[in-house]
Amino acid sequence: MRRIVKDLSVQKKTRQNVLLIIALFLVALSFRLWDLNATGVTWDERVYFRAGSHYVRALLNLNFDPKIWAENAEVPPVAKYIYGAANLLFAKGEDYTASRILSAIMAALTCIIVYLVGKEFFKKRVGILAALILAFLPPFVAHGKIAAIESPLALFFTLTVYFFLQGIKTGNQRKYFLSAIVCGVALATKFTSLLLFILVFLIFLLAKKRELLRKKEIAVPLAVIFFPALSFLTLVALWSPFWSGPFSQLMWRVTFYRDYGQLIREMFPGSSFGN
Length: 275
Description:
14 helices, 0% strand, mainly alpha
């Protein structure tokens, strides 16, 4: 009898949690879908729309001609894959609505992942509060209403942290491997995801702090040791120009952004941009 009561209680809590997740998702999503196209078209959307459509067509035809992949080559491809596929499937002409809806969905899912992190590793009310803050955070709302890099970046960045925390909590190596793969997807969305290497390292040290202080050493799982390598291999797998020479391709992009930063400083004179 007690077991039946306990099972019913677990089922009730599960239903409540599912309903809460749905409610948080719908709140975050509706706030972004409201007046979706009021901003007009942004510069980045035009670039990703065109390049993404070309990339997806090339992939469908198994065409890896460097000339096609040279378009907007300095920016990693995952966001362009997502929006390019949406444009080919749903858009008529230069219509960004389908891509913007996808952006809004990814932003809303990010709020759910933040809720799960708060609930599972702190307290339920922490997760709810964190998700609601993110759902109504003005910059995050703005980026969730356009087809840009930030929505998929936030989703994959947060998902990387969530899976890594799951690995620490359960000791399951597959969670670490999954986290590393998602980190690679985040890298293939925007290079600022390199910060994840520092973040997961600090998270691991903090989680193992007591063991380190007590034993003066910690056991590091194999999946954590190979985390950067697996992430980089995922980046290479997702971006065909990297197949011919991943390190030379990476250095070209580093050089590009260095020169681009210099160009921006020259375009905006003044002490704020000077030496």
